[in-house]
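Notes from the 1:1 (GR / supervisor)

We went over the backlog. Supervisor wanted to see one worked example end to end before approving the batch request, so GR pasted a single chain during the call. The sequence is below; no edits were made to it. Supervisor asked that the structure be written out right there so they could see what the output format looks like.
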Amino acid sequence: MMARSAESFDEAVLLERDASQFEVAVHDASRLAWHVVVPLPPSGRAAYSFELELEVPADVVGPLEPWSALQSYARLDGAADEAPAREHSVETFRRAVVLVSSRLARARDGFVRHCTLIRSSSTAAESHWRPLLLWVEAATTELARARSGLLRAGESERAPADEFLSGQLWTVLTDCGRALFDTRRALEERDLSDMSPIDSVEAALAEALRSEIAYRHESRFELAEPLSTAQLERLLARMRTLKKHFEQVLFLDAESYQVVSRLSGWFSAFTAMLAYLWFGVVQFALERHPTTLGSGVIAIAIATAIAYASRERLKEVARNWLSGRIQRMYAQRVARYRLPSKERPRSASLVVSARESFSQSSTHASPSVRSESGGVRDATLLRFVHRGVVTRPGALPALGTQQVRFIYRLDLSPLFARLHDAVRGFASLDPRGRITIVDVPRNYELPVAATVRWPGGSQRVQHSLILNKNGLVRVEDAINAGAA
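Structure output shown during the call:
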């Protein structure tokens, strides 16, 4: 294994921070997640925007309420390595702990990305495996440095912080091991003879995991036997609790409202005024020209009923027209994010003010989702658009924040009921000539395109969302379609 100093590891990990401003991933079996990173301006305000498009076959889309299926959060990100000398609060310590956690996550992302490159490469040279060893050492070195420095000054928060970071490293090693297993399987299918490089990487992962489990034993942290479901559940619950405990200091307080709901009172008043004006005109015409409709009470009653019914219809049409125009010209939802209530200064605390829209429109399917016959299929395009202004309040320099991370999760479970079975069986013959049934996964591939624009740059990425009747499977590797 190549030796590398802690400073060089910091540089390698930090370079990964700006690798992608827009990340799309599967959060769980039913929710698609996307994270957007927007840098804060040095001072003042800056405009930015991002959008995500998901293309779904028209026969798959059922009743879907985008806003009720969408979860959204925003948090501060990219805290400075060390808080200013005047900052010695518990929140500052927790924020520094979360910084270490994010560095571990970036090491994991680098490991997984290099595994993807190895699987897609036609050859697996020795130079391809060296970065994997470096990412493993980067994660362990980062945690060791935190334990020798930051965690010694945490006092009452030291023990839970150490346990939290230990759990994060365990998660990182788990994800790296899963990516390495996928890489090994892909190389075995290509009949690669020399597997010694991948064996050395697996040995490094095993050694890191062995050392961390031993540390957890020594520190009396929560542990679990691999075959004990109850212990594993307690361990996961403990890890979730610690994660929420430390990461809550970064999340911004959200305020949002639907534009139509906020203006519904004004819409109702305006349309009612138009409707009553129309009713008054009809009534006035009846009084001025009663002979045009004939005489009698029945004729007047019929004319009055028609005028009243048309008034209600006019009110409904006018309200829908105004709502549609406002949503298209302005937005469907307004969202604002402020500093956490504990850290708000008396002055301005607004960090983000944004307008959001979530629309559905009909289109023709892209080639990746067209039918096997080559014909053009109809598709429904789900398009989420976010346009906002980010502001650096006066308190942010003391918090050491460099960027804002937006987190969205969209529930796509209504689609699963309209999909075919997750597997399909095919008859085959085994070496002895007997019939066997081979189950083949029946997956669907949905195109996902994402764009983010910020002062001084932009990025567009394209993905493929793989899903079946059992839920979301994965997001295929991103294709960098353009960056400026």
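Supervisor's comment: DSSP finds eleven helices and 15 strands in the chain.
Batch request approved.
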